[in-house]
Design brief:
By secondary structure, the chain is an alpha+beta fold. It has ten helices and 20 strands. Helix 1 crosses helix 4, helix 3 runs parallel beside helix 4 and helix 4 packs across helix 10. It is globular and about 75 Å long.
């Protein structure tokens, strides 16, 4: 089966993940079909295949997993070359689960994120039968990673991975270019407590909704440069607010129970994104630590709770990046680079091994006409095979005269 056909077969399965464990478990057979398709390829490559459940237990058969979320692991030799990702997709209309080819485009849900790239990696492993390759693919990345996802895999094998891993490849970012870093994510809950009163006499109460709204507005102003220079933009600025600056996005807001009553309670969830070098000051803000007398406490009268946090990362090893660029050039892929405002499972490996993030040329991620360029997908398939068969640590890199990249993503032509 060709890599394009394999991608299309996976795309037909409608593997839409759900945060509701009951809904996810009801789709057990659908996800099992996708996992079994990949399991067959992994076993053909000579790998030991097993599944990790939400408790951290291992199962030889996907049918025996009784938790809603799981990860398939293919292990051959030592985990020197790690390939990770996910097989779940976001919702779409029915036509998006009927893959079609139009000229050089494969159009389907998951063409970009990330069934087609997963197909290319699995296909390359089956073709090369490379040694010292491990795969870890989950069914819950699109809903924030659940117990049984990649986070569980990393916890179980962190020591072994740190001993052997030369790189972690995750095709969950970019558009045919090398991604040199991803922002950290911190989701926080802000809770304001006021005092009830009749709506006709607001002076006798304390409006929690108004208090929370004012504090959120101030938080956004503060993180976007007021007072100027407190956070600052990242070193090696790209002159893009979304990329360079700390961003705060209110994702939920609710409060109040009755129309004729001053609300005594309100809460909101705020998505914060920032670079690793900005984290210290973010934590200071959240803990109300003051940097200078001119800075007021942002969260006066507000309770702050962290819902979850995912680390960010910046590529620091130029050898791995240069080698990846050399292989891309070899297979006719454009060699460009970017920084990502998003986040992915790759962040879970940030303290384990260098991250190589690249995927085929594609567009409309999560959109109605999500597509991947089929020629780029084939080139990506060959690129993955090359990464599997030629370990970076054992490669003698030859200066091609292309470029070097420093730890902050600065580009230097040679």
């Amino acid at each position: 089966m060709s890599v394009v056909n394999l991608a299309m077969e996976l795309g037909k399965l409608k593997m839409v993940s759900s945060k509701d464990p009951k809904e996810q478990f009801a789709k057990k057979a659908t996800f099992a079909a996708g996992f079994l398709m990949l399991e067959q390829l992994f076993k053909s490559a000579g790998a030991d295949v097993f599944y990790i459940d939400g408790k951290g237990d291992k199962h030889k058969q996907v049918e025996s997993v009784e938790t809603p979320y799981k990860t398939i692991v293919a292990a051959k030799g030592n985990p020197e070359k790690i390939f990770t990702g996910h097989i779940d997709v976001v919702p779409g209309n029915e036509s998006q689960f009927e893959p079609k080819q139009e000229e050089d485009k494969l159009i389907m849900r998951g063409a970009c994120d990330m069934l087609a790239p997963v197909a290319a990696m699995a296909h390359a492993f089956e073709e090369t039968k490379a040694d010292n390759v491990w795969f870890a693919l989950s069914d819950s990345e699109e809903i924030g990673e659940m117990p049984g996802g990649i986070i569980t895999f990393v916890k179980l094998y962190e020591h072994l991975l740190k001993q052997h891993a030369e790189f972690v490849c995750d095709p969950d970012g970019g558009n045919g270019e090398i991604v040199l870093g991803q922002k950290a994510v911190k989701l926080i809950k802000l809770i304001a407590t006021g005092k009830n009163a009749h709506a006709s006499k607001p002076s006798q109460g304390s409006n929690a909704i108004l208090l929370l709204a004012q504090q959120i507005i101030y938080l956004n102003q503060f993180l976007n440069g007021s007072p100027a220079g407190f956070i600052g933009v990242r070193e090696g600025s790209t002159n893009s607010h979304d990329v360079d600056d700390v961003t705060s996005t209110v994702v939920t807001f609710n409060g109040g129970k009755q129309k004729n009553q001053v609300p005594a309670y309100a809460q909101a969830e705020v998505d914060l994104r920032f670079w690793p070098e900005q984290e210290k000051k973010i934590l200071a803000i959240l803990s109300n630590t003051h940097f200078g007398s001119d800075i007021l406490s942002i969260f006066s009268g507000i309770n702050v709770e962290e819902i979850f946090s995912i680390p960010g990362w910046i590529a620091k090893d130029t050898k791995q990046i240069e080698y990846l660029a050399t292989l891309m050039h070899k297979f006719g892929m454009p060699v460009t680079q970017s920084l990502s405002t998003g986040n992915s499972d790759a962040s879970l490996f940030a303290d384990i091994a260098p991250i190589l993030m690249v995927r085929p040329i594609s567009a409309n991620q999560h959109g109605p006409e999500e597509w991947v360029d089929t020629l780029s997908l084939i080139a990506f398939n060959r690129l993955m095979g090359a990464l599997m068969t030629d370990a970076i640590a054992n490669n003698t890199f030859v200066n091609t005269g292309m470029y070097i990249v420093d730890s902050y993503g600065h580009h230097y032509g040679r």
